[in-house]
Amino acid sequence: MTHIKNGSRYLLLTVVAVALLFPILLGIWASLLPTKDIAAGNFLSTNISLNNYWQAFVTTPIIRYMINSFVTAGLITIGQLVLCTLAAYAFAFINFRYKKQLFFAFLVTMMLPFEAQIIPNFQTVKAFGWLDNYAGLTIPFFTSAFGVFMLRQAFLQIPADLVDFGNYLGLGRLQFLWKIAVPYSRSMLITFALYTFLTHWNQYLWPLITTFSDDFRPVQVGLKQLQSEDTFANWGMVMATAIIVLLPTLALLLIGQKFFKRNLNAGGTKG
Amino acid sequence: MKTTYKKMIAIVAALIVILGLGFFFTHQQHTEAADNGTGRTTITFWHSMNGPNEQVLENLVNQFNKSQTKYTIKPIYVGSYELSIMKYANTVGSNVSPDLVQSDQANQSMMIGLNATVPVQKFVDRDHYDLSQLYPGVTAAYKINGKLASMPFNSSSSVMYYNESLFKKYGVADLPLSPTYSDVTKAAVALTKKSKGAVKGMTMQIYGWLPEEMVANQNSLVVNHDNGRKAMATAATLNSPEMQKSMTWLQNVIKQNAFENFGTGSAAANNQSAAFLAQKVGIFMQSSAMLGQLQKNAKFKYGVTFTPHPDGTKANGVAIGGASLWITKNKPAAVQEGAWQFMKFLMTPQSQATWQLGTGYFAVNQKANQIQTLAAAIKKNPALAVPIKQLNQGNINAATAGAFFSNIQEERQNVELAMQQIYSGADVKKALNEAETDTNTAIQKTNEVSGNLLNYKR
Amino acid sequence: MELNKELNKTATESKSKLAATIKENNKPAFWFLMPSLLILTLFTFYPMIMTVYNSFFATNIRGEAAKFVGLGNYFSIFQDPLFLKSLAGTLVYVVAFAAITIVAGVVLARLATMKLRRISWFQTAFAGTMGTSAAAASILWLFLFNPSVGLASFALKAMGMTNANLLVDPTGAMIVIVLASVWMALGFAFLILLSAFQSVPPEYYEVADIAGWSQYKQTLKITVPMISPTLFFLFVVEIIDGFKMFAQIDLITGGGPNNATNFLAYKIYQDAFTFHNFGTASAESIVLTVIIALATWIQFHYTERKVYYA
Predict the structure, then answer these.
(1) Which of B229, B332, C62, C81 is the least crowded, having the fewest Cβ atoms under 10 Å away?
(2) Which architecture does CATH list for A61-267?
């Protein structure tokens, strides 16, 4: 009896999983079919090949787009790791004047949506000559209030004994940070790094308005560029490019999922 | 504590130095883009040619680059004409501002108002370039106050395409060269009926340029003051009897179930072409620039006619569509010179013939028809000569000069909205009235704030 | 007397020592905070002030603030039917998006907490949409609903719909956008809810089993109330994300048809970068900011976020 019940449960789970992942599965399937078959509605064709991927890599700048995304997301992640750690340390371990007010200032920035600031930010970046440039794509995001809060929370969880021990050893601030605080909060830092990388790999609006050439365009905006540059919807290749864009994030998630499951709820908002 | 403090300062200082260096180097890269190390001057060229047309353009660019050693043209696709002027306006004076830009006929008023370009007439006068080799109907559209502001490059007009093979198959008579509205309606209805719905008679994309062409063909204006050509436009005339006639005609075809609505946007344009090529739709109106793609991809015989006109009237002619090339101000002399040389190259009969053969835009140089390849192609497929015929047979007046004002984006959006409503069965007068009122509001708002920039001598 | 004096002396001494420590702490703290503060000032505080400033002007076609209009922009946008339509559409979208995501997430979490072997595989699968970028997701959904080659369009046609091109119909376009957005957000929502589900003590369920309650009743009457703080938190987070939504509109509908999907974030972009109405766009940005700031404040204040209490 339980077998049948379990069997039907597994079936239900599988159906739901397939339904949920259907758009991705369909995209993968279509990326393996020639555009001719797709246009004719022949989805059960057996002409499976990696042709579309080959075409995408050879005829479009998708490799450059991926590199751009990787560099910008990477630079931002490094920047945030450094700057947010420093700021979180200050809030967690130092008592200073105006601490409450500065804390509130950071808090306030989380309430102000980036989407509402794009006009002045665009003009700032333009004035600096940072348009169509890694600088313009990364520097505005080198810090994040959400990161500061998340890491502060992690630092606050360091047992007082450890802090005292550091003092006893005569460790300077940076030494304490580097030798004790960071290793202790390693899991949280990794989660944060993965999350930041992912968020900025997926960024769309800002790169859309600040990049103008294939040299600096990241891959999300690249998708739009490719879609508008093509006139006859080469569906096979379009799907291949979408899957190429998806794969790194899917892979990253599979690897990082245990960190996410553990730390997302504890850390705070999505930001 | 004190050593930590010093270390902190060191780190922050290092960060700032790195950032500063980064800023400095990347900034240098852009301002020195003119010399890419091979001794050639690089000229960035923003264009909106996509699909197969992009290939043809890049071939021409390569040809030019190989033919001399002074300049390298770097072509960059920046999206639709709409996106292109938006990006251009946003980057005036910045490090990414392009040296040469392709901007469409509709946005001329805005381009001149931006005051960011050098009138091409300056180079024409300096080199005594013979403008008369270009069609007067084309240069007329791009002259302001008698001076050529930009060099016409890809010119098109609206034409009607129909599937001759399908017509033959279902026993529908071919359309005449200059069809009336009822000619088209009859053909569309017959096609739909006789194919038992397998083929939808016609479609007209919800694209604001098409209604402009339809009213130009009825010698009617889009905005006042002679379409903005005599003085700065202050009001739109979208609810004119001529516009109503065109819209009512389309609604009529829809009511008879012989119409397919593909919506709006680039996705709609693609779907429409795909449907025509898949022989699911028999007639559609679009830029003559589609000829190139149809040539390559149509597996059936297709016909091309003039833009239709209402029964009992004479076709007035349509406005030139397409785009022209503009040279940006405040760039090094070598860069501007290179841009001008490239322009001249693109205007030669050979280049224009290659361009027309590859894309379907018609050659603006009158001598291009004598180039062997083009002449042979026209002989083989007379449809290629239809856009030029429409130009030559049309009258030269304010209506065919085309609308000249800077709120054309809003106007087209409002007209597209009206078309959506009309296609869904709304009252034509009401929908057009709404479009006109909204456009007038936009025009007034812009004139109030930018009037000093736009009120130049025409 | 002497004791008092002693105490006072110690008190003043330690006060001055404390003051000295704090002073000594100010400098390093400043350096630790300075880089972040610099970036935040330049790219968050300054733009916010500039947006407010810009909203009081009408800008010309070159993007320069040309004419001072005071609160004129605010008055005109609230009288502009297009803006009001955009606002209304955004509200409908946001609520639908948040509600459907939560409900679907709860269902998924319920399914994924069944006591079966290999349930973790399904948990991974259910979180699979997390991290799909808006651009890639939009392409996938565009493909699904394409009138010529989309499987969804085929299905709709087979079910008898006359116009299977949902994207040409205002309501249809809204449906597709909501679906695509929910799909993108489900992965994350599922993970949060899964962890919440797992935090409910199993004793409650054991008692309910004994009492003969069905799974459905248990979920409704035990799980949901117990995880209601998480539900509320997630609801507010999704609302905030909904207001910021942009990429799906840019890629799938372009704001149409008939401005049916021209939601706030997209309208701001259009007014600023297509129509060069920086003044109007800035005013609209302030409206968006107020809405999101309010929602975020609610999120901070009413959800059990121990993070933010010093």
Answers:
(1) C81
(2) Orthogonal Bundle (1.10)
Q: Inform me whether the pLDDT recorded for C24 exceeds 70.
A: no
Q: How many CA atoms lie within 13 A of B320 on its CB side?
A: 32
Taking residue B319's Cβ as centre, other Cβ atoms within 10 Å add up to 26
Q: What is the mean pLDDT of residues B167-188?
A: 93
| Count of domains forming chain C | 2
Contacts of B278 in chain C (CB under 8 A): 148
Instruction: Give yes or no for a contact between A172 and B1, defined as CB atoms under 8 angstroms apart.
Output: yes
In a domain, C77, yes or no: no
pTM of the predicted model as reported, rounded to 2 decimal places: 0.82
Please indicate whether residue A182 or residue C17 has the higher confidence score (pLDDT): A182
Residues 6+ apart with CB under 8 A from B373: B353, B354, B357
Of A109, A119, A208, the CB nearest to C51: A119
Q: Are residues B234 and B325 in the same domain?
A: no
Please say if the pLDDT value at position B26 is more than 70: no
ipTM entry = 0.84
- In the chain, the amino acid numbered C23 is K
Whether B94 and chain A come into contact, CB under 8 Å, resolves to yes
What is the DSSP secondary structure assignment for residue C270, as one 8-state letter? Answer: I
| Cα A196-A202-A203 angle, rounded to 5 deg | 90
Q: Pull the structure tokens for residue C127.
A: 């979180």
CA pair distance C187, C175, nearest whole angstrom: 19
Interface residue B456 vs chain A (CB under 8 A): no
Q: Could you tell me which residues come within 8 angstroms of residue C7 by beta carbon, excluding any fewer than 6 positions away?
A: none
SS3 B396: coil
Write the single-letter amino acid at A177: L
B291 and B425 in a single domain? The answer is: yes
Residue B93 has pLDDT above 90, yes or no: no
User: What is the C-alpha to C-alpha distance for residues A172 and A160, in angstroms, rounded to an integer?
Assistant: 16
On whether any CB of chain A is under 8 Å from the CB of C140, the answer is yes
Report which of residues A227 and B158 the model is more confident about: B158
Under the banding of pLDDT at 50, 70 and 90, the label for residue C14 is low
Instruction: Give the CA distances from residue C206 to residues A30, C155, C201, in Å, rounded to whole numbers and listed in that order.
Output: 47, 43, 10
The domain in which residue C210 lies consists of: 83-308
The answer for C 29-58 residues in CB contact with B (under 8 A) is 31-32, 34-35, 58
Chain A residues touching residue C274 (CB < 8 angstroms): none
Is A13 close to C139, i.e. CB distance below 8 A?
A: no
Residue A268 zone, left/alpha/beta (φ > 0; ψ -120 to 50; rest)? left
Backbone angles phi, psi at C61, to 5 degrees: -70, -15
Which of B:2-21 have CB within 8 Å of A? 3-4, 7-8, 15, 19
**Is there a cis peptide before residue B75, judged by omega within 30 degrees of 0?**
no
Query: Looking at the predicted structure, is the pLDDT value of residue C228 above 70?
Result: yes
Instruction: Output phi, psi for C57, to 5 deg.
Output: -125, 160
Q: How many helices (H) and strands (E) does chain A have?
A: 15, 0
* pLDDT at residue C19, as a whole number: 59
Q: Do B90 and C259 touch (CB under 8 A)?
A: no
Any A CB within 8 A of B55 CB: no
For the cut 90, the answer to whether the pLDDT of residue A177 exceeds it is no
Answer yes or no: is pLDDT of A268 > 50.
Answer: no
- Of B363, B380, B397, the residue that ends a domain is B380
For residue B287, give the amino acid letter.
Answer: S
Q: What ranges in B362-427 are assigned the alpha helix state H?
A: 372-380, 386-393, 398-401, 408-423
DSSP B326: E
Helices (H), B33-171: 51-67, 81-90, 108-114, 121-127, 136-142, 164-169
